[in-house]
Amino acid sequence: MKTYDIAVIKGDGIGPEIVDEAIKILDVVSKKENFNLNYKEYLMGGCAYEATGNPIPDETIEGCKKSDAILFGSIGGYKWDNLPRELKPESGLLKLRKELGLFANLRPVAVFDELIEASSMKPEVIKGVDLLVVRELTGGIYFGEPRVNDGQKAYNTMVYSKDEIIRIAKVAFESAMKRDKKVCSVDKANVLEVSRLWRATVEEVALDYPRVELSHMFVDNAAMQLVRDPRQFDVILTGNIFGDILSDEASMMSGSIGLLPSSSIGGIVGLYEPIHGSAPDIAGQGIANPIATILSASMMLRYSLGKTKAADMIDSAIKEVLSEGYRTADLAKYHAKVVCSTQEMGDIIVEKIKKA
Ligand code: NAD
Is position 208 annotated as part of the catalytic site? Predict the structure, then answer.
């Protein structure tokens, strides 16, 4: 029986609660589909800082590099807000992404019909939305040098090399080939040189994907179009900062950030995590929604381990559970028949998979 090594980083806040549920679900699908998952836990974030003085110990980086995939919960919390930048929990995650060369962040946004009213957007606008934001993750203004703040003047530098644009564009086109074959590349080419190189390079990559329809949009228009008519999008391809903002905007369509998974790929090993943070306001209460993490585990099976059937089982079980009215507290207002705890939600999904 094939065994895969999974590095597990539970992290801070609700991280341990939600990752435990995802593992429960992975155990049941792997058993059904005859493969083994060998989990090894590593520290990252505030908990790592408390234990070792370092938000990402070398052991974590090395362990992740040796694994087949990484399942991650969330990091951060008020307690560590005032630490210097390099010791903050978030710097652990940035370093891990960089060390693993994870340059592509994939965030699917699909609207569940049963939860359509949970979104702040109108049902007729978001019904049927199924899009994927492909965000460049290791370049752009977040990492560009020089970066300066001398108290009187401050600046950052937005840099992209042609190679960086080519590799992220390929991820977007490859993803589109498995979906509706449309890529909308988002930039600010009317103002920024870096965006003009971005646009020209994406055009070049598109030549290798004649079946994919390519369009371009300025980021300000994209922000507006996402609210006006989100169904027009299939794959949105964009850089680091624009992607950060647009993917959060797109996430509002689902009604709860507790529902949205993500993956960071392209490097040595893929990292799978919910889009939300460590939710310190609800940590330890057993009320967090584990679905985003469970869907991240499903993405892990699909993209890093090639276990499509197991991933499909998870996705279907979640749809079924939501259509039957099981809800965690964040979604209790929306056609809930049963309001359940984090753990109960995991148990119900496990039961559905067992019965499937
Ligand atoms: P957050 O995503 O943690 O929480 C925002 C709101 O959403 C909170 O009210 C929270 O209770 C709710 N929420 C989040 N996840 C939920 C879930 N699964 N179920 C139900 N409700 C949920 O964002 P924040 O409050 O801005 O940040 C808290 C900490 O998380 C900060 O330290 C921040 O830096 C960190 N953070 C970490 C990551 C990560 O680990 N990748 C991402 C974003 C923020």
Answer: no
167 and 66 within one domain: no
> 336: exposed, middle or buried (C-beta count within 10 Å: 0-12, 13-18, 19+)?
middle
Cβ proximity of 135 and 239 under 8 Å: yes
Ligand 1 center to 13 CA (angstroms) = 9
- Tell me 229's DSSP state: -
Our mutation pick for probing the ligand 1 site, out of 21, 93, 276, counting the most ligand atoms within 8 A of Cβ, is: 276
Q: CB-hemisphere CA count at 13 Å for 168?
A: 33
Residue 137 structural domain: 120-254
Residues 308, 355, single domain; the answer is yes
The mean pLDDT of 8-32, rounded to a whole number, is: 98
Side by side, the strands of the sheet bearing 69-74 are 36-41, 3-11, 69-74, 270-274, 261-265, 104-110, 130-136, 235-238, 182-187, 213-218
Q: 167: part of which helix (H) or strand (E)?
A: helix 162-177
Do you find a cis peptide bond into 230, omega within 30 degrees of 0? Answer: no
- CB distance 286 to ligand 1 below 6 Å: no
Phi then psi dihedrals of residue 283, to 5 deg: -60, 140
Q: In total, how many domains does the chain have?
A: 2
For residues 131 and 250, is the Cβ–Cβ distance under 8 A?
yes
User: Is residue 121 helix, strand or coil?
Assistant: coil
Is 340 within a domain? yes
Mean pLDDT value of segment 293-304? 96
Q: Cβ distance 279 to 74 under 8 Å?
A: yes
Amino acid identity for residue 306 in this structure: G
The arithmetic mean of pLDDT across residues 115-136, rounded, is 94
- In the listed set 234, 254, 274, which residue is the last one of a domain according to the structure? 254
The model carries a pTM of 0.91
Q: What is the mean pLDDT of residues 205-227?
A: 98
Residue 193, in any domain of the structure: yes
Question: Which among 187, 221, 254 is the end of a domain?
Answer: 254
Which of 135, 137, 155, 139 lies closest to 147, judged by CA? 155
Which of 43, 56, 257 has most ligand 1 atoms within 8 Å of its beta carbon, as the pocket-test mutant?
257
